[in-house]
Amino acid sequence: GIDKIKDRVICIDTFSKTWAMTGWRIGWAVAPKEVTDKLSIFLQDSITNVAAFIQKAAYSAITGPQDWVDNKLQLLQDKRDRMVAGLNTIPNIKCDTPDGAFYAFADISGTGLTSQEFTDRLVERAGVAVVAGTAFGSQGEGYVRITYACSDEDIDEGIKRIKEADLS
């Protein structure tokens, strides 16, 4: 059981994604005491004075009803599937189904454009902003990141505009 491994496990997380508290700069850690003691010293110099209302909101998030999390997860999965299906209808673009976050990482290498050329032309021709894969390292060349944390109408309109931009 957990008693056998609790001295070897460190779990650090944030409230950003699951509870939609991005930008609130609050998280939590579960670890052996010697680790949390060192974390406390580090945090005293780097993150201090998290506002009381943020701490109360975080507490409410973890102690309150959790059914909305499952509902939100299903909503995001539906949006993810809509985005991926739409991207895969565009010639020379391939997109695998992502496992986390609310971004698709589409393979645009079939267009013959670099990631930056693709993003620049897409903004110019279609008014659609995406992030070049190279923003995440050189291995991101040939990819773009696209959010699906928006309305279904925005997803559909974005896919339509990308198709009409004819970037291949």
Describe the structure.
This protein is an alpha+beta fold. It has helices spanning about 1-5, 35-45, 50-65, 65-85, 115-125, 150-165, and strands at about 10-15, 25-30, 105, 130, 145. The strands form two sheets. Strands 3-5-4 form a three-stranded antiparallel beta sheet. Strands 1-2 form a two-stranded antiparallel sheet. The termini are far apart.
Short description:
This protein is of the alpha+beta class and 168 residues long.
Chain-wise SSE layout:
Elements: H1 2-5, E1 11-14, E2 27-30, H2 33-46, H3 52-63, H4 67-87, E3 103-107, H5 115-126, E4 131-132, E5 143-147, H6 152-165
Antiparallel strand pairs: 1-2, 3-5, 4-5
Helix pairs in contact: 4-6, 5-6
Keywords, separated by commas or semicolons:
168 residues, alpha+beta, Aspartate Aminotransferase, domain 1, 2 domains, 3-stranded antiparallel β-sheet, two-stranded antiparallel sheet, 6 helices, elongated
The top level CATH class name of the largest domain = Alpha Beta
What oligomeric state do the depicted chains represent? Answer: single chain
H and E string: HEEHHHEHEEH
User: Which architecture of the largest domain does the CATH hierarchy give at level 2?
Assistant: Alpha-Beta Complex
Here the CATH topology of the largest domain equals Aspartate Aminotransferase, domain 1
Number of domains in the coordinates? 2
Total helical elements? 6
Q: Main sheet, how many strands, which sense, barrel?
A: 3 strands, antiparallel
The end-to-end span amounts to 55 Å
Provide the spatial order of strands within the biggest beta sheet.
Answer: 3-5-4
Helical residue percent? 40-55%
Find the CATH superfamily of the largest domain.
Answer: Aspartate Aminotransferase, domain 1
Shape: elongated
The tally of beta strands, per DSSP, is 5
Q: Would you tell me the structural class of the helices and strands?
A: alpha+beta
How much of the sequence lies in strands comes to 5-15%
List low-pLDDT spans. none
Q: Average the pLDDT over all residues and give the rounded result.
A: 93
